[in-house]
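Query structure, 284 C-alpha cells:
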C-alpha cells in the first residue's frame, strides 16, 4: 500500500487531478491524507477539491433519493410501471404545446436530473434528455397543435397533449404522476403533484424530454418562418418577439387566441396571458 501511495504521489498533480477529480476514480486509502500533508500547495488544494466533490456527490445522492419518494411509495404498493407526465410550451405566443410521458426503471437515479426550468444550459438539458430516453422503460411525446390551442384554450390543449403522450407509451402504466393537474380520460389511476417537476423524478424526466423536444421543433420552425427569432426565444412573448409581431405580423405558427397576437392583427383579446415570461437565457 505504501509503495502504491508513493508511486501515485510521484505522478504529476495534473495526472492525479484528471484521474481522481475529473474522472472520479476511487481514491485509494491514505491518498487524501498524504496529499494534505504534502508540502506542495497544489497537492493540498487537490485534496480539498476531492473532499468537496465527495460531499457534493453525497448531497446529490440524497437529493435524487428524495426525488424518488413518490415513485418508491407506488413501487412498494405494487405499481410496477409509474409514468411521469409534464408539458412544455403553455406560455409562448407561437408553436404547439408538447408533453412527454416517461416510465423510469425502479430506483433510477440520474445525476443532475431536475425540473428542466432549473437546468439553464441547453446542452446539459439535451444530455439529460438523451440519458432518460436511453434508460427509460418507456417514453413518448404528444402535442396539441396551434389550431387546437386556439379552439380549446391553452389549458385544455395542455391536457390534450398530456393525454396523447400517455396514450403513445408502448405500455399502459399502472399509475400516472402529473405535474399539478389531472388528465381527462387517463388510462390509469393518477395523482397531480403541485411543482411535481421539481419533486418527482418521473415528472422531471418528462419535463426534460418535453422541453428539449419543443425547443428542437421551434429551432426548425425558425428556418421556416425567419425573422421572428423562434430559435432564440422559442415563441415566448419577449420584447424581441413582440417587436417582430408588430413588424412582420403573425405567421401560421402564432396562437391567434393570445392577446399580443390578436393585438398585432388588430383583433380584440380572447385568452389572457396566464403565465409570466421566463427570464432570458444566454442561448437555447
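Result returned for the query:
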Amino acid at each position: 500500500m505504501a509503495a502504491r501511495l508513493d508511486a501515485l504521489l510521484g505522478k504529476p498533480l495534473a495526472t492525479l487531478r484528471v484521474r481522481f477529480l475529473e474522472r472520479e476514480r476511487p481514491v485509494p486509502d491514505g491518498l487524501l491524507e498524504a496529499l494534505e500533508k504534502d508540502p506542495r500547495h497544489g497537492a493540498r488544494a487537490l485534496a480539498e477539491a476531492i473532499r468537496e466533490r465527495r460531499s457534493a456527490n453525497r448531497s446529490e445522492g440524497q437529493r435524487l433519493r428524495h426525488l424518488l419518494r413518490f415513485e418508491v411509495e407506488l413501487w412498494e404498493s405494487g405499481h410496477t410501471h409509474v409514468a411521469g407526465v409534464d408539458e412544455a410550451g403553455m406560455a409562448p405566443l407561437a408553436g404547439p404545446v408538447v408533453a412527454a410521458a416517461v416510465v423510469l426503471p425502479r430506483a433510477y437515479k440520474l445525476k443532475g436530473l431536475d425540473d428542466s426550468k432549473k437546468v439553464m444550459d441547453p446542452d446539459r438539458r439535451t444530455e439529460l434528455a438523451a440519458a432518460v430516453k436511453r434508460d427509460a422503460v418507456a417514453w413518448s411525446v404528444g402535442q396539441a397543435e396551434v389550431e387546437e390551442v386556439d379552439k380549446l384554450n391553452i389549458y385544455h390543449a395542455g391536457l390534450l397533449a398530456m393525454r396523447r403522450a400517455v396514450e403513445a407509451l408502448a405500455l399502459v402504466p399502472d399509475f400516472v404522476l402529473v405535474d399539478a393537474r389531472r388528465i381527462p380520460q387517463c388510462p390509469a389511476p393518477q395523482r397531480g403533484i403541485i411543482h411535481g417537476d421539481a419533486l418527482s423524478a418521473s415528472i422531471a424526466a418528462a419535463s426534460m424530454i418535453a422541453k428539449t423536444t419543443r425547443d428542437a421543433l421551434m429551432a426548425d420552425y425558425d428556418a421556416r418562418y425567419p425573422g421572428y427569432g423562434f430559435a432564440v426565444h422559442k415563441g415566448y412573448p419577449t420584447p424581441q418577439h413582440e417587436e417582430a409581431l408588430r413588424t412582420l405580423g403573425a405567421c401560421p405558427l402564432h396562437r391567434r387566441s393570445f392577446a399580443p397576437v390578436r393585438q398585432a392583427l388588430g383583433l380584440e383579446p380572447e385568452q389572457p396571458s396566464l403565465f409570466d415570461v421566463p427570464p432570458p437565457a444566454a442561448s437555447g
